[in-house]
């Protein structure tokens, strides 16, 4: 069946979760982006953006996350048509909550449906990851995989792409705080070390394994022990004023683990909902940022569903 319009939504995500740099990702049910794709005459890709932080997002297809994905999928389909892409941002760009990934994921599943390409979920992740070049300068797949599949994912391999999805314990909740700090994703990646000493590598492998072990053991507390990063977070800490103070407050208020969300500046805390309230933790982190002169927005979330089609028109 041929459609003229397809609309999709995709969730916010958090990547890394401590030591799982470019490997771990989780969909969050609190925020989402909405993308509407429409067939048009000619061969042009047009992009319209509104909503949260839309003024900072380029409309040129080659510089826009959704535009890059659309161009690649059009080439694959060999359809001689144009596309109008309307993006409604519900996730602030540069937040560390997978804003670009949500737009890329929603665009990928919408165009796949609109053009009847019939790509597998893994293939969709591969195309959506190309869109991350626009914001991060690298086609990493952790956020887009979580946005497409939902839940918690592990990127086992990038070449070839191999992704695993694992169900988290039912009592997992996240307390998140989004500070009013401008942090470019490319800058956050540029400060990372180009080499890592053996001790730090061993530390991070152990912590990442502990996080996954916590899921297998159905223990949020064990998962929290895995959210300690010896490589990436120390390099980025100076970009987020008061980070250590915020982390201390989160742990004291009931969180079992806390880390920078993705490239930041958001900070995400893991909460066992049977023992603490995510809102209390989020408010404690907000207060900690205020104590160092930074305003912030508290957010509570659970592991969410993946991207989905919400409307089709012939």
Task: Give structural notes.
This protein has 314 residues and is of the alpha+beta class. It has 11 helices and 11 strands. The protein has 2 domains: 173 residues, Ribosomal Protein S5, domain 2; 130 residues, Alpha-Beta Plaits. The radius of gyration is 19 Å and the shape is globular.
The percent range for helix content is 25-40%
Please summarize the sheet with the most strands.
7 strands, mixed
Number of domains: 2
Can you tell me the residue ranges where pLDDT is under 50 for at least 5 consecutive residues? Answer: none
| Number of helical segments with 4 or more residues | 11
Order of helices and strands: EEEHEHHHHEEEHHHHHEEHEE
The coarse silhouette is: globular
Q: What is the β-strand count?
A: 11
The averaged pLDDT comes out at 95
Question: Using only CA atoms, what is the Rg?
Answer: 19 Å
Structural descriptors:
Alpha-Beta Plaits, 11 helices, globular, single chain, 2 domains, Ribosomal Protein S5, domain 2, four-stranded antiparallel sheet, alpha+beta, 314 residues
Record the SSE blueprint.
Blueprint: E1 5-16, E2 20-40, E3 45-51, H1 65-77, E4 82-89, H2 99-114, H3 121-130, H4 133-136, H5 142-149, E5 152-158, E6 161-166, E7 172-179, H6 185-190, H7 198-216, H8 220-225, H9 232-236, H10 243-252, E8 257-260, E9 267-272, H11 278-291, E10 296-301, E11 308-313
Parallel strand pairs: 3-4
Antiparallel strand pairs: 1-2, 1-11, 2-4, 2-5, 5-6, 7-9, 7-10, 8-9
